[in-house]
Specification:
By secondary structure, the chain is of the alpha/beta class. It folds into two domains: 1-25 and 259-353, no CATH class; 40-175 and 184-254, Spore Coat Polysaccharide Biosynthesis Protein SpsA, Chain A (Alpha-Beta Complex). The protein contains 15 helices and twelve strands. The protein has helices spanning 2-25, 53-62, 81-89, 109-120, 139-150, 166-169, 174-182, 187-190, 208-214, 216-219, 226-236, 258-269, 277-296, 300-321, 325-352; strands at 40-46, 68-74, 95-99, 125-129, 133-135, 152-158, 160-161, 203-207, 240-245, 250-252, 356-357, 360-361. It has a seven-stranded mixed β-sheet with strand order 3-2-1-4-8-6-9, sandwiched between helices. Strands 5-10-7 form a three-stranded mixed β-sheet. A two-stranded antiparallel sheet has the order 11-12. A hairpin with a 2-residue loop joins β11 (356-357) and β12. α1 packs parallel to α14 and α12 (258-269) packs across α15 (325-352). The protein starts with a helix and ends with a strand. Residues 41-211 form the Glycosyltransferase 2-like domain. It is found in: Cell membrane. InterPro entries: Glyco_trans_2-like (IPR001173), Nucleotide-diphossugar_trans (IPR029044). Keywords: Cell membrane, Glycosyltransferase, Membrane, Transferase, Transmembrane, Transmembrane helix. The chain crosses the membrane at residues 6-24, 275-296, 302-322, 329-351.
């Protein structure tokens, strides 16, 4: 029992230290006033995105970076995504819509769509955006400045998450919580080790010359979590790369229902552990089982210290992510319970080979 409690506290304290590092280092994209005029190709893979795509296109049209082209690839949508984009593009010359080719070989859908988009792009930088995000003023100019300032091959941003329903509030905050509780985000740039890697496919900005040379999406054609894998590839090739928080300059409403959130996070959960079920279970055991054992000791001092080490990081991470700290502390037990459900579904679907996304097996 003493050994289990000791291991539990070591794990909690390590995560606490990581969170404090992230909070103090404040890894956010900063707004800059120096103007840039490089051509940025904004590339958007879209499959059944009729409810989101016009919000994104309107936000691009309204933001303040002047020199861009926008290419949307319709990935065999069964809804009106193509027609909506075609209507929008007919009114705005910087926008165009293309149809994706039939999926072939080992390609996964999004990776193939991004690969085709890159073949069409003419810019100095390639900016891949998910169709459910919205961009704000200063985003593109600040990101281009960061590319020059750090001499980056890749910059990825973790968007601020919009949550409206209770189902979203008890699931979506898990993404920032797991990320900022386990990974010192600044180390992605500072460390040359490709193991230290994380990225978000919601915003991936590439140096176009390097991308044309390396064809990053082609190198990761069969990877479910292609964003993190591309980050590893970029680091392995010895190019500078960085991941930051978006600082309110890009937002996303990832999932609008409980089932959508559970399925979406379940798709990626095991991939974060390189599909090693044993490692995933050990993580869950330390994260959830350890504190439960500490509670059974009924030692008030021990329990109070443990709760402080768990809940204080929730506050720091919520502030970094632009989320309500009080709400996340209050909902923490429910969010962790939902993490268990997500983990169960991820393992069950992986073992039965029934993982799907947007109507395709992956």
């Amino acid at each position: 029992m003493i050994t289990v409690i000791y291991v539990t506290f070591v794990f909690i304290i390590l995560r606490f230290v990581v969170t404090v590092f992230n909070f103090v280092s404040d890894p956010k994209l900063r707004r800059v006033n120096k103007p840039y005029t490089d051509l940025v190709s904004i590339l958007i893979p879209a499959r059944n995105e009729e409810k989101n795509i016009l919000n994104l296109l309107d936000s691009i049209l309204s933001q303040d970076y002047p020199n861009y082209e926008v290419i949307v690839l319709d990935d065999d949508s069964s809804d009106s995504t193509y027609e909506l984009c075609a209507g929008f593009a007919s009114k705005h010359h910087a926008f165009r819509i293309i149809r994706g080719k039939e999926l072939t070989g080992q390609w996964l859908g999004k990776n193939y769509a991004c690969h085709q988009l890159a073949q069409q792009a003419k810019g100095d930088f390639f900016l891949f955006l998910d169709a459910d995000v919205q961009v704000r003023n200063s985003l593109i100019n600040s990101a281009v400045h960061r590319m020059y300032f750090r001499n980056l091959g890749l910059l990825s941003l973790f968007a601020n998450q919009q949550m409206e329903t209770f189902a979203e509030k008890v699931t979506v905050p898990l993404m920032h919580y797991i990320l900022l509780n386990l990974l010192p985000l600044r180390l992605i740039y500072l460390s040359r080790n490709s193991v230290v890697a994380a990225a978000s496919g919601q915003f991936m900005l590439f140096n176009a010359d390097i991308y044309r040379q390396k064809q990053w999406h082609s190198l990761t054609k069969d990877k479910i979590v292609e964003d993190a894998e591309i980050m590893r590839q970029v680091k392995s090739a010895r190019f500078n790369s960085e991941s930051l928080l978006a600082n309110g300059m890009i937002s996303c409403r990832m999932y609008k229902s409980y089932s959508g959130a559970v399925n979406g996070f379940g798709k990626n959960a095991l991939a974060a552990f390189n599909f090693n079920i044993f490692s995933f279970l050990i993580f869950l055991l330390l994260l959830i089982g350890g504190p439960m054992i500490v509670i059974t000791t009924l030692n008030l001092n021990l329990i109070t210290m443990m709760l402080g080490l768990i809940l204080l990081p929730r506050v720091m991470i919520s502030l970094l992510a632009g989320q309500s700290a009080a709400r996340n502390v209050l909902l923490h037990p429910i969010q962790i319970f939902n993490l268990l459900i997500i983990a169960f579904l991820a393992i069950q679907r992986y073992l039965t080979k029934t993982t799907t996304w947007k109507g395709r097996n992956i």
